[in-house]
Amino acid sequence: MSNLKDIYNHEFVQKLTHTIKKEYPSFDAPKCQTLIFREDWEDLALKQRMRRITVSLYETLPSKFNEALTILYKTAPHFTGLSGIIFPDYVEQYGLEHWEESMGALETFTQYSTSEFAVRPFLLLNQERMIEQFLEWSCHPNDHVRRLASEGSRPRLPWGISIPSFKSDPSPILPILHNLIQDESLYVRKSVANNLNDISKTHPALLADTAAKWYGKHHDTDWIIKHAYRTLLKKGDKQALSVFGYEDGESIRLQHFTCSPDRISIGESLSFSFQIHSAKNTKVRAEYAIDYVKARGQRNKKVFKITEIDIHQGETRAYSKTHSFRDLSTRKHYKGVHTITIIINGTPKESLDFIVN
């Protein structure tokens, strides 16, 4: 597929309506398909296509929420992955007045796809009640449901509805995350780390408190804490660096830093190399930053990790890397003077300019 939105295509809709028809013989599949494939279908983005399907199902399934759920329960297991979010979306759109039934449905549907987006309106509707549900889910035997407790409660869930109260005070989330801080599933641990990283952007002290309680207790927990600190580490936050022992930047000397060529075209790559020499035994986090020229001529810094090592007194390490300036869907390059900087333990050591044309 050339575009993510194309997970919702004619083949998908035919399979969906055929599967529903098997479970609900009076289902008007042609009408549902007509409602979905209106003349603007090709112009709809991913979430717009998802919502079109959801609304069309509402128009053709039984009007009573519980009766429609009974059919969707039987249909959902046939649609896994991202495309399956139409089922939680149905609950999000039409289940807000049916709390208990909706919670059961979201718990089930998340095991085939994800209900992380669908829980957000319920959280806005009744935060205290939803927090209790998250706490219950955080102890669920299924890792998809446990992940929902963490992912659904993120203050800054990408593509999800914002939760302003969690941005201003994320402390209600912490008991949920503490239930998951040693979770056996990497799928869950990644979500916990992402949630804590969200929190760190506005309340770094809460992440510091969590690290003080949990770091060093278990290797899985250590991974969560380290991943949660990724934004603060890239910012060179001194407290974050000290948690992992990357405190000493002064005893590390940068040597022979070069980059070539000094003029490249968009689509080409920049090569750079350098050495670090340490005056004592210490831990080193080496990064490089590029100040990109943006569309209006301003510059924006992006930091990339190179390595994290223990280095001995008198030791020298050499590094060589390339960095591509090929346009991506997530980054477009512009002409102008760019700067590359080597950063050691949060301290910028040396910078070089180069031209992109």
UniProtKB/TrEMBL annotation:
<dbReference type="Pfam" id="PF08713">
    <property type="entry name" value="DNA_alkylation"/>
</dbReference>
<dbReference type="InterPro" id="IPR016024">
    <property type="entry name" value="ARM-type_fold"/>
</dbReference>
<dbReference type="InterPro" id="IPR021133">
    <property type="entry name" value="HEAT_type_2"/>
</dbReference>
<dbReference type="InterPro" id="IPR014825">
    <property type="entry name" value="DNA_alkylation"/>
</dbReference>
<protein>
    <recommendedName>
        <fullName>DNA alkylation repair protein</fullName>
    </recommendedName>
</protein>
